[in-house]
Amino acid sequence: MAALTVAICEDPWLTASDQVGTDPDWREILIPKGFGIAEYRIDRKNQQVLLTRIVLF
Question: Is 56 helix (H, G, I), strand (E, B) or coil?
């Protein structure tokens, strides 16, 4: 989980991430090895990435 969080912060537009809904700054990505999904929001104005939800399978 820590490695995924670092990867998201380094490059919020990871190739494995998908846009959620119609907002391109709201993203989701599968947690490696099928453990779940992580949703996050990119705040371009403040240059922040906010982890909004983790859903474990």
Answer: strand
Positions in the chain whose pLDDT score sits under 70: none
Give 11-20 pLDDT, tens digit per residue. Answer: 888 888 999 9
Secondary structure (3-state) at 13 = coil
Task: Please write down the HEC assignment for all residues of 14-55.
Answer: CCCCEEECCEEEEEEEEEHHHCEEEEEEEECCCCEEEEEEEE
- Residue 1 in 3-state DSSP? coil
**CB neighbours of 28 closer than 8 A, spacing ≥ 6?**
17, 18, 20, 37, 38, 39, 40
Contact between 39 and 26 under an 8 Å Cβ cutoff? The reply is: yes
